[in-house]
Every structure is written in C-alpha cells, then in structure tokens.
Amino acid sequence: LPIQAPNLSECQTAGTSSGNNCCPPYSATILDYKFTPTGKLRVRRPAHKVDEAYLAKYKKAVELMKALPADDPRSFAQQANVHCAYCDGAYDQVGFPDLELQVHNSWLFFPFHRFYLHFHERILGKLIGDDSFALPFWNWDAPAGMTIPQIFTDPSSSLYDPLRDPAHQPPEVLDMDLGDAAPTPQRQIDLNLSIMYRQMRRGGSMENSPHGPVHVWVGDPRQPNGENMGIFYSAGRDPIFYSHHANVDRMWQVWKKLNPRNVDFTDQDWLDSSFLFYDEDARLVRVKVRDCLDPEMLGFTYQKVDLPWLSKRA
Ligand code: C2O
C-alpha cells in the first residue's frame, strides 16, 4: 500500500524520542499540489562558489524566515520541525496506529527530502521577492567542497549555528566515514573520493554514507545527541542542513545520469506515497512521490560541476 500523508490532527508530542513538540500548525484544508512552471529554472550552485550578491540574498531570506512568527508554518522554527515531525515519531502511519511514520532508511528518503527542500526554497524566494532563488548545495563530493562552506561560518550571519563541532571548522576536511583520522588532509580527500566512487558506481547506499556521517560530523559533540545536525529532531535547525540535503538530492539526479540502468522504482505504491507540506503561501498541500522524480518537474536544476570521484576506483 502507498504510504499516506499523515493526519495532522493526530500529530503527537508524546512518543517522540526528543520529547519536543514538532507538530505543525493545523489546517483542515489540504490542496493537491500541482507545480506550475514559471518558465524560470532555479539553478542550485555549489555553496563554496557563490558570489557576494547571492550570499547577501540568501542571508536576508533566512533572516526573514527566522523573523516570522513561531506559529507561521513558513517560519524557520516550523521548517526545522517538519523534519522532526516526519522523523521522530510524531505521526503514525495512516491506518497503522502502531507504526510510526519514518522517512529514513526507506525508499521515501529521497522523495521526502526533495519535496522538503523544494518548499523551503520557494518560501525563502518568496520572502525576498525572487522567484528564481535557489538553495546552494554543499559540494562535498569534490575536494574544494570538503570543508564546512565558509558562508555558514560567520557568527554574525543568519546562516550560522553555534551548535556545531568546533574542531570541524574549515580548513578541517570532512570525514565521510567517521573512521580513524587520516594522516593528512590529502589522504582524507582521497578516502572521501573512494567512498563516493563506491556509493555511486557500485550501488552503495548514499543514505548510509556520506549522508549520515556528514550529519554527525557537523553536529556538536558537547551536546547530548550531537545537536543540531547530529540527530533527526534538531538537524533542520542548522541552515547547513538544507545545503547538505541539496547535495544528497543532487546525487540522486547524478546517479540517474551515470548509467541507463540507474532508474527509479516503478512500484505504484511508492509512486503514490504522499506527504504534506506548507507552501510559500502557507497553504497545506499534499504531494505524491510520482511528481518529484525529475527536478525539472519542480522547476529547479543543479549547475553542472566536475565529478572528481568518477575516475577514483577504491
Ligand atoms: Cu532527514 Cu539528512 O536527514
């Protein structure tokens, strides 16, 4: 059976492992989402290469989002809670009161996060009156992108989050498997490229690595659960989350272009699975997996950049 969108009126605080209330504001009206193309594609660019003008816009948009009232579903706090609600036991699966809805470790991982970023991006764009605004992607699959992107490290910026591992600030190189520290930064970069090769060419699970380790590596080890990035309920509170997931999402697309045999599932239950999100006008919408399989169906794309791991056999 397809996984049905959750029943918001039954969202529960009790039972979430974090004990947090991540339930969204309630709306009785649910619209079926139809993306309307505007003719303009939102082009997501590598976070380490954005220019000053873009950075100013992005910072402004997040600042405005953080300034929205806490009960506005488009506010930054509510956006972060979307992740918490879908991942921390706030919803049961419709028809299965004993089964919590969990979008990780399953086929729902890529489509859920694609839609999540899509609406987040549209809300940000709307706040600054720019309907071509696109999130940056954290290009951690390329050597120049294997540190926390500078745009997230300025403590006076809306993109900053104090709950991160202080030892993992640039120029510290990302450790994709959280293994023993590599002897040199160059060795770590090579290890990361081998992991990318393995996951993308040999059919590894992107969700296991590098997706998971990047979360844990960014999070603050002085917090009880590696908050913010290191645990589901709080991960969305760090603005870097959305860049991290833009790259995860980009890998779904890159994977499909690597080999004609790399195709999406055709299982109807998967295609008909649905989620609820609030859109940029604070309307509650229902989306279906079948409507997100190609980024251009949702009006965005990724700037083409080199894939240095392609030639990197482990
Ligand atoms: Cu929903 Cu990166 O986790």
From TrEMBL:
<dbReference type="GO" id="GO:0046148">
    <property type="term" value="P:pigment biosynthetic process"/>
</dbReference>
<feature type="binding site">
    <location>
        <position position="83"/>
    </location>
    <ligand>
        <name>Cu cation A</name>
    </ligand>
</feature>
<protein>
    <recommendedName>
        <fullName>Tyrosinase copper-binding domain-containing protein</fullName>
    </recommendedName>
</protein>
<keyword id="KW-0883">Thioether bond</keyword>
<keyword id="KW-0479">Metal-binding</keyword>
<keyword id="KW-1015">Disulfide bond</keyword>
<feature type="domain" description="Tyrosinase copper-binding">
    <location>
        <begin position="104"/>
        <end position="121"/>
    </location>
</feature>
<feature type="domain" description="Tyrosinase copper-binding">
    <location>
        <begin position="238"/>
        <end position="249"/>
    </location>
</feature>
<feature type="disulfide bond">
    <location>
        <begin position="11"/>
        <end position="23"/>
    </location>
</feature>
<feature type="binding site">
    <location>
        <position position="113"/>
    </location>
    <ligand>
        <name>Cu cation A</name>
    </ligand>
</feature>
<feature type="binding site">
    <location>
        <position position="215"/>
    </location>
    <ligand>
        <name>Cu cation B</name>
    </ligand>
</feature>
<feature type="binding site">
    <location>
        <position position="104"/>
    </location>
    <ligand>
        <name>Cu cation A</name>
    </ligand>
</feature>
<feature type="cross-link" description="2'-(S-cysteinyl)-histidine (Cys-His)">
    <location>
        <begin position="87"/>
        <end position="104"/>
    </location>
</feature>
<keyword id="KW-0186">Copper</keyword>
<comment type="similarity">
    <text>Belongs to the tyrosinase family.</text>
</comment>
<keyword id="KW-0560">Oxidoreductase</keyword>
<dbReference type="GO" id="GO:0004097">
    <property type="term" value="F:catechol oxidase activity"/>
</dbReference>
<dbReference type="GO" id="GO:0046872">
    <property type="term" value="F:metal ion binding"/>
</dbReference>
<feature type="binding site">
    <location>
        <position position="211"/>
    </location>
    <ligand>
        <name>Cu cation B</name>
    </ligand>
</feature>
<feature type="disulfide bond">
    <location>
        <begin position="22"/>
        <end position="84"/>
    </location>
</feature>
<feature type="binding site">
    <location>
        <position position="245"/>
    </location>
    <ligand>
        <name>Cu cation B</name>
    </ligand>
</feature>
